[in-house]
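Milestone 3.1: sequence recovery, worked example.
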C-alpha cells in the first residue's frame, strides 16, 4: 500500500467511531500491527470509503483483530447490529439466514442460525439499557411464538429450535419463558455450551 493511500485510509478510519476500540488497542500494546492489518483489509474488502452498509463488515473485521464485540457494536445502527450478529454466528460455523418472513400469521425472525444438532432462532435487540422483568417477558413471549410458528413450517426437520434474544447490554435474567437472553459478549460461550442449557430452554 502506498504512503498516500495509507494516510488516506488512516483518515477514513479515524473518522469512523467504529474504529475507536482498535486505536485504543493499538495504543495499549504500542504496536502498529493491528492498525496495519485493518488498513489492509479495508483496502481489499471495503475500498476507499466506509459507506454505511459496509459498517457491519468493518465491525466484524475489528473483532477479528481483537476489539471487543460489545464495544464495537455500540456505534452500529440497529439494522447494522443485526448484520453484525449474523456475521458473528457465521464465523462460529452456523448456516445463517436473515430476515426470515413467516405467514399465517405474518411474522419475522431476525436470524435463523442452523447448526448440526439445533436451530437457533434469534431476535436482535440493540438495547443500551437494562429492561424490567416484565419487559423482558413480553419480548421473550413474542420470540417464542415466532419460533413456534417457524417450527410449523419445518415439521420434517428433527432438530430442536432454540429461541434466543441477543442483546447489546447485559440483562438481569438469563432465561425467560424458555428463551435465552444472551448478551453479545457471551455469544460464543453460549453457542459453544448450548447443550448444557437445554434443560432451561
Amino acid at each position: 500500500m502506498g504512503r498516500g493511500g495509507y494516510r488516506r485510509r488512516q483518515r477514513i478510519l479515524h473518522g469512523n467511531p467504529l474504529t475507536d476500540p482498535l486505536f485504543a488497542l493499538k495504543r495499549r500494546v504500542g504496536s502498529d500491527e493491528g492498525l496495519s492489518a485493518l488498513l489492509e483489509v479495508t483496502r481489499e474488502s471495503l475500498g476507499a470509503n466506509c459507506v454505511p452498509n459496509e459498517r457491519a463488515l468493518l465491525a466484524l473485521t475489528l473483532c477479528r483483530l481483537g476489539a471487543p464485540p460489545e464495544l464495537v457494536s455500540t456505534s452500529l445502527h440497529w439494522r447494522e447490529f443485526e448484520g453484525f450478529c449474523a456475521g458473528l454466528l457465521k464465523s462460529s460455523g452456523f448456516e445463517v439466514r436473515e430476515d426470515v418472513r413467516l405467514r399465517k400469521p405474518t411474522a419475522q425472525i431476525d436470524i435463523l442460525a442452523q447448526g448440526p444438532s439445533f436451530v437457533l432462532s434469534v431476535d436482535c435487540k440493540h438495547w443500551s439499557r437494562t429492561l424490567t422483568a416484565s419487559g423482558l417477558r413480553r419480548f421473550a413471549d413474542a420470540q417464542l411464538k415466532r419460533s413456534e410458528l417457524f417450527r410449523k413450517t419445518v415439521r420434517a426437520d428433527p432438530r430442536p429450535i432454540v429461541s434466543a434474544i441477543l442483546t447489546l447490554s447485559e440483562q438481569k435474567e438469563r432465561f425467560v419463558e424458555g428463551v435465552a437472553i444472551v448478551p453479545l459478549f457471551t455469544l460464543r460461550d453460549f453457542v459453544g455450551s448450548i447443550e448444557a442449557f437445554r434443560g432451561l430452554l
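The chain is about 45% helix and 20% strand. The first helix runs from residue 3 to 14.
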